[in-house]
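Final report, closing paragraph on structural work. Over the funding period we assembled a curated collection of sequence-structure pairs, and we close with a single example.
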Amino acid sequence: MNTAPLVTVIVPVYNVAGYLPQCLKSIVEQTYTRLEILVVDDGSTDKSGSIADEWALMDERIKVVHKPNGGLSDARNAALDVARGDYITCIDSDDYVHTSYVDRLYKALTATQADIAVCQWADFAQGNAPKTAPLPEPPVYKQYSQDEAIKAVFYQQGLTHSAWGRLYKRSLFEGTRYPKGMLYEDLAIAFDLLLKTGKVVRTSDTLYYYRRRSDSITGTFSPKRGHVLDILEGLEKRVSLEAPRYLPAVRSRLLSASFNMLRLMPPCDPRYLDLSYRSWNNIVRLRDSCLRDVHVRARNKAAILISYMGQAALLRAINGK
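Its predicted structure, as stored:
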Protein backbone atom coordinates (compact mmCIF):
# COMPACT_ATOMS: atom_id res chain seq x y z
CA MET A 1 0.00 0.00 0.00
CA ASN A 2 1.32 3.42 -0.99
CA THR A 3 1.54 5.49 2.21
CA ALA A 4 3.17 8.57 0.65
CA PRO A 5 1.33 11.87 1.18
CA LEU A 6 -1.36 12.63 -1.37
CA VAL A 7 -0.48 15.40 -3.82
CA THR A 8 -3.30 17.22 -5.62
CA VAL A 9 -2.48 18.35 -9.15
CA ILE A 10 -4.80 21.13 -10.37
CA VAL A 11 -5.22 21.52 -14.13
CA PRO A 12 -7.56 24.33 -15.27
CA VAL A 13 -8.76 23.71 -18.83
CA TYR A 14 -10.29 26.05 -21.38
CA ASN A 15 -10.19 25.35 -25.13
CA VAL A 16 -6.81 23.61 -25.18
CA ALA A 17 -7.70 20.45 -27.11
CA GLY A 18 -4.45 20.64 -29.06
CA TYR A 19 -2.27 20.70 -25.95
CA LEU A 20 -4.18 18.85 -23.22
CA PRO A 21 -3.11 15.28 -24.11
CA GLN A 22 0.59 16.19 -23.79
CA CYS A 23 -0.07 17.90 -20.47
CA LEU A 24 -2.05 14.99 -19.00
CA LYS A 25 0.42 12.42 -20.30
CA SER A 26 3.25 14.17 -18.46
CA ILE A 27 1.19 14.10 -15.24
CA VAL A 28 0.02 10.48 -15.29
CA GLU A 29 3.60 9.35 -16.01
CA GLN A 30 4.96 10.98 -12.83
CA THR A 31 7.41 8.88 -10.83
CA TYR A 32 5.56 10.10 -7.71
CA THR A 33 2.37 8.11 -8.14
CA ARG A 34 0.10 9.02 -5.21
CA LEU A 35 -1.72 11.80 -7.03
CA GLU A 36 -5.16 13.30 -7.12
CA ILE A 37 -5.43 14.93 -10.56
CA LEU A 38 -8.25 17.50 -10.68
CA VAL A 39 -8.98 18.61 -14.24
CA VAL A 40 -11.39 21.55 -14.27
CA ASP A 41 -13.15 22.03 -17.61
CA ASP A 42 -14.05 25.71 -17.40
CA GLY A 43 -16.83 25.72 -19.99
CA SER A 44 -14.67 24.75 -22.97
CA THR A 45 -16.34 25.03 -26.37
CA ASP A 46 -13.90 22.70 -28.14
CA LYS A 47 -13.17 19.02 -27.38
CA SER A 48 -11.16 19.72 -24.23
CA GLY A 49 -13.90 18.46 -21.90
CA SER A 50 -14.35 15.17 -23.74
CA ILE A 51 -10.57 14.67 -23.91
CA ALA A 52 -10.38 15.10 -20.14
CA ASP A 53 -13.21 12.58 -19.67
CA GLU A 54 -11.39 10.05 -21.89
CA TRP A 55 -8.24 10.37 -19.80
CA ALA A 56 -10.28 9.94 -16.61
CA LEU A 57 -11.51 6.58 -17.95
CA MET A 58 -7.90 5.51 -18.45
CA ASP A 59 -6.57 6.65 -15.06
CA GLU A 60 -8.68 6.53 -11.91
CA ARG A 61 -6.56 9.27 -10.29
CA ILE A 62 -8.07 11.81 -12.70
CA LYS A 63 -11.27 13.54 -11.63
CA VAL A 64 -12.92 15.92 -14.08
CA VAL A 65 -15.00 18.89 -12.94
CA HIS A 66 -17.21 20.44 -15.64
CA LYS A 67 -18.38 23.97 -14.86
CA PRO A 68 -19.60 27.10 -16.64
CA ASN A 69 -16.86 29.42 -17.81
CA GLY A 70 -15.63 31.60 -14.96
CA GLY A 71 -11.98 32.15 -15.82
CA LEU A 72 -8.69 30.75 -14.59
CA SER A 73 -9.11 31.87 -10.98
CA ASP A 74 -12.58 30.38 -10.71
CA ALA A 75 -11.33 27.08 -12.14
CA ARG A 76 -8.45 26.86 -9.69
CA ASN A 77 -10.75 27.77 -6.81
CA ALA A 78 -13.21 25.03 -7.81
CA ALA A 79 -10.40 22.53 -7.51
CA LEU A 80 -9.06 23.96 -4.25
CA ASP A 81 -12.54 23.64 -2.74
CA VAL A 82 -12.56 19.86 -3.24
CA ALA A 83 -8.84 19.02 -3.10
CA ARG A 84 -7.93 16.26 -0.65
CA GLY A 85 -4.15 16.34 -1.02
CA ASP A 86 -1.64 17.21 1.68
CA TYR A 87 0.17 19.21 -0.99
CA ILE A 88 -1.03 21.25 -3.97
CA THR A 89 0.54 21.97 -7.34
CA CYS A 90 -0.93 23.79 -10.36
CA ILE A 91 -0.09 22.94 -13.96
CA ASP A 92 -1.48 24.99 -16.83
CA SER A 93 -3.16 22.80 -19.43
CA ASP A 94 -1.08 24.04 -22.38
CA ASP A 95 2.18 23.27 -20.56
CA TYR A 96 3.78 20.01 -19.49
CA VAL A 97 6.19 18.79 -16.81
CA HIS A 98 9.15 16.48 -16.32
CA THR A 99 8.23 12.99 -15.16
CA SER A 100 10.05 13.72 -11.88
CA TYR A 101 8.28 17.07 -11.37
CA VAL A 102 6.27 16.12 -8.29
CA ASP A 103 8.91 13.79 -6.83
CA ARG A 104 11.75 16.32 -7.00
CA LEU A 105 9.65 19.16 -5.66
CA TYR A 106 8.41 16.98 -2.81
CA LYS A 107 11.96 15.95 -1.94
CA ALA A 108 13.12 19.58 -2.03
CA LEU A 109 10.28 20.65 0.24
CA THR A 110 10.69 17.87 2.79
CA ALA A 111 14.51 17.94 2.81
CA THR A 112 14.51 21.60 3.78
CA GLN A 113 11.26 21.64 5.81
CA ALA A 114 9.93 24.38 3.56
CA ASP A 115 6.30 25.30 2.89
CA ILE A 116 6.75 26.00 -0.83
CA ALA A 117 9.17 24.32 -3.27
CA VAL A 118 9.87 26.05 -6.59
CA CYS A 119 11.57 24.62 -9.68
CA GLN A 120 13.30 26.09 -12.70
CA TRP A 121 11.36 26.18 -15.96
CA ALA A 122 12.04 26.27 -19.68
CA ASP A 123 9.82 28.29 -21.96
CA PHE A 124 9.32 27.57 -25.62
CA ALA A 125 7.50 28.95 -28.61
CA GLN A 126 4.46 27.18 -29.93
CA GLY A 127 5.42 24.07 -31.88
CA ASN A 128 8.97 23.86 -30.51
CA ALA A 129 8.48 21.77 -27.37
CA PRO A 130 11.83 20.76 -25.87
CA LYS A 131 12.51 17.20 -24.78
CA THR A 132 12.90 16.58 -21.07
CA ALA A 133 16.51 15.99 -20.06
CA PRO A 134 18.10 13.82 -17.35
CA LEU A 135 18.36 15.65 -14.04
CA PRO A 136 21.73 16.23 -12.39
CA GLU A 137 22.49 14.70 -9.02
CA PRO A 138 22.32 16.07 -6.49
CA PRO A 139 20.14 19.13 -7.09
CA VAL A 140 21.18 22.43 -5.56
CA TYR A 141 18.73 24.02 -3.14
CA LYS A 142 18.45 27.75 -2.46
CA GLN A 143 16.51 28.45 0.73
CA TYR A 144 14.61 31.66 1.53
CA SER A 145 13.19 32.80 4.83
CA GLN A 146 9.76 34.41 4.71
CA ASP A 147 11.36 37.87 4.62
CA GLU A 148 13.82 36.88 1.90
CA ALA A 149 11.10 35.21 -0.18
CA ILE A 150 8.79 38.24 -0.13
CA LYS A 151 11.62 40.53 -1.16
CA ALA A 152 12.84 38.13 -3.85
CA VAL A 153 9.35 37.96 -5.41
CA PHE A 154 8.61 41.68 -5.38
CA TYR A 155 12.13 42.79 -6.29
CA GLN A 156 11.97 40.11 -9.04
CA GLN A 157 15.22 38.51 -7.97
CA GLY A 158 15.23 34.73 -7.99
CA LEU A 159 11.56 33.99 -7.34
CA THR A 160 8.39 34.72 -9.29
CA HIS A 161 4.74 34.98 -8.27
CA SER A 162 3.52 32.32 -10.74
CA ALA A 163 1.09 29.68 -9.47
CA TRP A 164 2.64 26.94 -11.62
CA GLY A 165 6.03 25.30 -11.18
CA ARG A 166 5.81 24.87 -7.43
CA LEU A 167 4.52 22.60 -4.70
CA TYR A 168 2.59 24.11 -1.77
CA LYS A 169 1.58 22.78 1.58
CA ARG A 170 -2.19 22.66 1.36
CA SER A 171 -2.57 24.62 4.61
CA LEU A 172 -1.35 27.78 2.86
CA PHE A 173 -4.62 27.96 0.93
CA GLU A 174 -6.85 27.79 4.00
CA GLY A 175 -8.89 31.00 3.85
CA THR A 176 -7.12 32.11 0.65
CA ARG A 177 -8.51 31.90 -2.87
CA TYR A 178 -7.73 33.45 -6.25
CA PRO A 179 -9.72 36.60 -7.15
CA LYS A 180 -12.27 35.76 -9.83
CA GLY A 181 -12.18 37.44 -13.24
CA MET A 182 -8.77 39.06 -12.86
CA LEU A 183 -5.56 38.69 -14.82
CA TYR A 184 -2.39 38.24 -12.74
CA GLU A 185 -4.48 36.35 -10.21
CA ASP A 186 -1.37 34.58 -8.91
CA LEU A 187 0.24 37.95 -8.12
CA ALA A 188 -2.94 38.95 -6.27
CA ILE A 189 -2.51 36.23 -3.62
CA ALA A 190 1.29 35.91 -3.62
CA PHE A 191 1.74 38.22 -0.64
CA ASP A 192 -0.93 36.41 1.41
CA LEU A 193 0.58 33.00 0.70
CA LEU A 194 4.09 34.18 1.55
CA LEU A 195 2.91 35.70 4.83
CA LYS A 196 1.83 32.19 5.84
CA THR A 197 5.14 30.70 4.77
CA GLY A 198 8.06 29.98 7.07
CA LYS A 199 10.47 28.99 4.31
CA VAL A 200 10.61 28.70 0.51
CA VAL A 201 13.08 26.48 -1.33
CA ARG A 202 14.12 26.75 -4.97
CA THR A 203 15.66 23.72 -6.64
CA SER A 204 18.11 23.88 -9.52
CA ASP A 205 16.05 21.23 -11.37
CA THR A 206 14.32 22.29 -14.59
CA LEU A 207 10.99 20.52 -14.25
CA TYR A 208 8.34 22.72 -15.89
CA TYR A 209 7.89 23.49 -19.60
CA TYR A 210 5.99 26.69 -20.28
CA ARG A 211 4.42 27.21 -23.70
CA ARG A 212 4.36 30.78 -25.04
CA ARG A 213 1.22 31.14 -27.15
CA SER A 214 0.43 34.15 -29.30
CA ASP A 215 -3.31 33.54 -28.75
CA SER A 216 -3.14 33.36 -24.95
CA ILE A 217 -4.84 35.95 -22.75
CA THR A 218 -1.44 37.41 -21.92
CA GLY A 219 -0.25 37.29 -25.53
CA THR A 220 -2.37 40.24 -26.63
CA PHE A 221 -2.92 43.67 -25.12
CA SER A 222 -6.26 44.60 -23.59
CA PRO A 223 -7.52 46.91 -20.83
CA LYS A 224 -7.54 43.84 -18.54
CA ARG A 225 -3.78 44.13 -18.34
CA GLY A 226 -4.48 47.06 -16.06
CA HIS A 227 -5.36 44.49 -13.39
CA VAL A 228 -1.67 44.31 -12.53
CA LEU A 229 -1.76 47.99 -11.59
CA ASP A 230 -4.99 47.46 -9.61
CA ILE A 231 -3.36 44.64 -7.65
CA LEU A 232 -0.07 46.39 -6.94
CA GLU A 233 -1.55 49.81 -6.16
CA GLY A 234 -3.94 48.13 -3.74
CA LEU A 235 -1.12 46.10 -2.21
CA GLU A 236 0.98 49.24 -1.83
CA LYS A 237 -1.74 50.83 0.29
CA ARG A 238 -2.25 47.67 2.32
CA VAL A 239 1.45 47.08 2.97
CA SER A 240 1.99 50.70 4.00
CA LEU A 241 -0.44 50.06 6.87
CA GLU A 242 0.21 46.41 7.74
CA ALA A 243 3.83 45.66 6.85
CA PRO A 244 5.72 48.84 5.88
CA ARG A 245 9.07 47.03 5.83
CA TYR A 246 7.99 45.52 2.50
CA LEU A 247 6.84 48.79 0.97
CA PRO A 248 10.07 49.40 -1.02
CA ALA A 249 9.84 45.93 -2.58
CA VAL A 250 6.17 46.35 -3.54
CA ARG A 251 6.90 49.78 -4.99
CA SER A 252 9.75 48.31 -7.02
CA ARG A 253 7.34 45.75 -8.49
CA LEU A 254 4.74 48.45 -9.21
CA LEU A 255 7.36 50.58 -10.96
CA SER A 256 8.41 47.58 -13.06
CA ALA A 257 4.79 46.82 -13.99
CA SER A 258 4.24 50.45 -14.98
CA PHE A 259 7.28 50.42 -17.27
CA ASN A 260 6.09 47.15 -18.79
CA MET A 261 2.58 48.52 -19.33
CA LEU A 262 3.94 51.41 -21.39
CA ARG A 263 6.16 49.02 -23.33
CA LEU A 264 3.32 46.65 -24.25
CA MET A 265 0.45 49.01 -25.04
CA PRO A 266 0.02 50.33 -28.60
CA PRO A 267 1.56 53.83 -28.69
CA CYS A 268 -0.80 56.81 -28.86
CA ASP A 269 -3.89 54.58 -28.81
CA PRO A 270 -6.78 56.61 -27.34
CA ARG A 271 -8.36 53.46 -25.90
CA TYR A 272 -5.56 53.16 -23.37
CA LEU A 273 -5.06 56.75 -22.30
CA ASP A 274 -6.11 55.98 -18.73
CA LEU A 275 -3.64 53.10 -18.43
CA SER A 276 -0.93 55.24 -19.97
CA TYR A 277 -1.60 58.04 -17.49
CA ARG A 278 -1.66 55.68 -14.51
CA SER A 279 1.57 54.02 -15.57
CA TRP A 280 3.40 57.31 -16.12
CA ASN A 281 2.05 58.74 -12.87
CA ASN A 282 3.36 55.71 -10.97
CA ILE A 283 6.77 56.09 -12.59
CA VAL A 284 7.04 59.77 -11.66
CA ARG A 285 5.81 59.09 -8.14
CA LEU A 286 8.12 56.15 -7.42
CA ARG A 287 11.26 56.77 -9.44
CA ASP A 288 13.20 58.82 -6.90
CA SER A 289 12.86 56.30 -4.06
CA CYS A 290 13.43 53.33 -6.38
CA LEU A 291 16.55 54.91 -7.85
CA ARG A 292 18.01 55.12 -4.34
CA ASP A 293 16.98 51.54 -3.47
CA VAL A 294 20.00 49.24 -3.84
CA HIS A 295 17.74 46.22 -4.41
CA VAL A 296 15.94 47.59 -7.51
CA ARG A 297 17.01 45.86 -10.72
CA ALA A 298 19.60 47.62 -12.91
CA ARG A 299 17.30 47.55 -15.95
CA ASN A 300 14.63 49.46 -14.02
CA LYS A 301 17.17 52.00 -12.81
CA ALA A 302 18.26 52.55 -16.40
CA ALA A 303 14.63 53.16 -17.38
CA ILE A 304 14.25 55.55 -14.43
CA LEU A 305 17.17 57.65 -15.67
CA ILE A 306 15.64 57.84 -19.15
CA SER A 307 12.26 58.79 -17.64
CA TYR A 308 13.75 62.02 -16.29
CA MET A 309 14.07 63.10 -19.93
CA GLY A 310 10.28 62.86 -20.30
CA GLN A 311 7.62 60.36 -21.27
CA ALA A 312 8.32 60.64 -25.00
CA ALA A 313 12.00 59.77 -24.50
CA LEU A 314 11.06 56.83 -22.30
CA LEU A 315 8.58 55.48 -24.85
CA ARG A 316 11.20 55.70 -27.61
CA ALA A 317 13.73 53.85 -25.45
CA ILE A 318 11.48 51.01 -24.25
CA ASN A 319 10.05 50.49 -27.74
CA GLY A 320 13.54 50.36 -29.28
CA LYS A 321 13.15 53.47 -31.39
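The radius of gyration is 20 Å. The chain has eleven helices and nine strands. We thank the funder for supporting this effort.
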